[in-house]
Write a structure and sequence with these properties.
The chain is mainly beta and about 300 residues long. Helix content is about 0%, strand content about 70%. Strand 17 and strand 18 form a beta hairpin. The protein starts with a strand and ends with a strand.
């Protein structure tokens, strides 16, 4: 697979408070599928099965408006070109998905720019999206159906920055739901809700060289349908949360010693579902010690 892209942006001031941002991305995408002929001794061991060549221009258009301090509003639109490499029921390559993305939101800056917040709503309309549909035991291969249309709607909230001297905070929440033209939920291997929170604090006084922190990552339920031969079953993952801890000590102006512990509770969870009838577990508790020196 080879992908080449070029992007050109432009910005125009339409007034003292209104600004136009526009641009376009040119993408050239090439993919070849090779088949291993292990059961055909009279054939070449590896042959070219299928090829795809696509060239697409995706424009972008956005407006920003400076509202009374500390707020700024924006709206944006962009085309979607998403290459895919899956097989349909007749064992042809699926081709790319196309669509449109719309977004509108408000951004704000507080505490003299040290703390930033944002709220955005979005909608994504796509066609020719590949959705996992079944498994052919005779070919030992999965196949996908092309959805005539999907619509994803959602919103995002984010707050990040320095709340007070030495104390940094990040909060982020995302909600999204995807449905096809019949109202059936699709892309259920992705969570509808995600919440992330993290904080760090530099201790005062004699302990000012020490920074401590922690974080939490939570997601809602996910579901995948797996096929093998004539057997089929849904794989579900209930909502789960992962917790992390960190500590950093300044050994000097250019040297830091840092400790990171991820998945503190050693939670067992799937990091991927529904790929070739498989699930993949995420990392258990991991501890990393890093010594950094800047020259």
């Amino acid at each position: 697979t080879t992908q080449t892209a070029n992007f050109g942006p432009a910005r125009f001031n339409l007034g003292s408070r209104l600004h136009l941002l526009t641009g376009a991305r040119w993408t050239r995408w090439e993919a070849d599928e090779y088949r291993w002929n292990q059961w055909s001794p009279d054939s070449a061991p590896i042959t070219l099965s299928q090829s795809q060549r696509y060239s697409e221009i995706t424009p972008y258009l956005g407006f920003t408006s400076d509202l009374p301090v500390p707020y700024m509003a924006y709206v944006s639109y962009t085309n979607i070109f998403q290459p895919q490499m899956y097989k349909t029921r007749d064992w042809n390559m699926t081709g790319p998905a196309y669509g449109h993305n719309y977004e509108a939101g408000i951004k704000a800056s507080y505490l003299e720019g040290r703390l930033n917040g944002s709220f955005a709503v979005f909608q994504t309309n796509q066609k020719d999206v590949a959705e996992y549909a079944g498994f052919d035991a005779a070919r030992n291969e999965s196949w996908y159906e092309m959805l005539d249309g999907t619509r994803t709607r959602g919103f995002e909230l984010e707050l990040a920055g320095e709340v007070s001297p030495g104390w940094n905070l990040f909060l982020g929440y995302t909600y999204r739901v995807s449905k096809d033209n019949a109202g059936r939920k699709v892309q259920t291997t992705q969570p509808e809700q995600m919440l992330k929170a993290s904080t760090t604090y530099r201790l005062p006084g004699a302990l000012r060289d020490l920074v401590i922190g922690g974080g939490m990552r939570w997601q809602s339920r996910t579901r995948a349908v797996g096929y093998y031969g004539e057997q089929s079953a849904a794989v579900e993952q209930q909502p789960y949360a992962l917790f992390d801890l960190m500590a950093q000590y300044d050994l000097g102006r250019q040297t830091q010693l840092q400790l990171n512990v991820r998945n503190l509770a050693d939670k067992r969870y799937y990091r991927a579902m529904g790929f070739y009838n498989s699930v993949y577990y995420g990392e258990g508790r991991t501890t990393l010690v890093t010594l950094t020196h800047r020259f």
